[in-house]
């Protein structure tokens, strides 16, 4: 047997980073991390939470949880994808053609932003539909319909169980 020295690929490295970033989230219900990479280099990172210097849900609402919007999500938080994209925009990074790694499949509202920013590919870890208990992976479906490549990490193109 030849001695092999397998190197981690960028998908593994960036998804692992996204998983670690999710742990920084102060939201109580969902903790999501995102990494935005272009040409194998990281251009931004993000995790879900209210805008900087506004609220920390876990510290302010430890008993009641985050204030909810009509869909049952935290009403204060920017999503991980939004935070990653906004930081890249603020810093003038070129986002077009980038790949977004995210620990939860994008919601429809993030999907609209991802599409508009011309991000070419989204790799997600967990199903948003399963998390929300809804029948369809609406964000991923929207992106695929309009030509953005979407795959579930560890499953491959399209994801097996959408
Ligand atoms: Zn929250
Ligand atoms: Zn979202």
TrEMBL record:
Keywords: Hydrolase, Metal-binding, Zinc. One of its GO terms (cellular component) is cytoplasm. Pfam families: dCMP_cyt_deam_1. Residues 9-137 form the CMP/dCMP-type deaminase domain. The keyword Hydrolase applies. Its cofactor is Zn(2+). The keyword Metal-binding applies. InterPro entries: APOBEC/CMP_deaminase_Zn-bd (IPR016192), CMP_dCMP_dom (IPR002125), Cytidine_deaminase-like (IPR016193), dCMP_deaminase-rel (IPR015517), Deoxycytidylate_deaminase_dom (IPR035105). It comes from the Bacteria. GO terms for molecular function: dCMP deaminase activity; zinc ion binding. Belongs to the cytidine and deoxycytidylate deaminase family. PANTHER family: DEOXYCYTIDYLATE DEAMINASE, DEOXYCYTIDYLATE DEAMINASE-RELATED. This is Cytidine deaminase. It comes from Persicitalea jodogahamensis.
């Amino acid at each position: 047997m030849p001695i092999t020295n397998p190197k981690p690929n960028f998908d593994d490295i960036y998804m692992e980073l996204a998983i670690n970033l999710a742990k920084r989230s102060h939201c109580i219900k969902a903790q999501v991390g995102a990494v935005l990479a272009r040409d194998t280099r990281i251009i931004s990172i993000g995790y879900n939470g209210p805008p900087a210097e506004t609220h920390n849900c876990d510290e302010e609402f430890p008993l009641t949880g985050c204030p909810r919007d009509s869909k049952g999500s935290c009403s204060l938080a920017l999503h991980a994808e939004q935070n990653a994209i906004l930081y890249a925009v603020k810093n003038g990074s070129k986002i077009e053609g980038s790949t977004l790694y995210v620990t939860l499949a994008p919601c429809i509202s993030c999907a609209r932003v991802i599409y508009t920013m011309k991000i070419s590919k989204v790799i997600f870890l967990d199903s948003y539909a399963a998390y929300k208990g809804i029948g369809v992976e609406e964000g991923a479906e929207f992106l695929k319909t309009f030509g953005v490549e979407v795959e579930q990490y560890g499953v491959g193109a399209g994801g097996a169980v959408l």
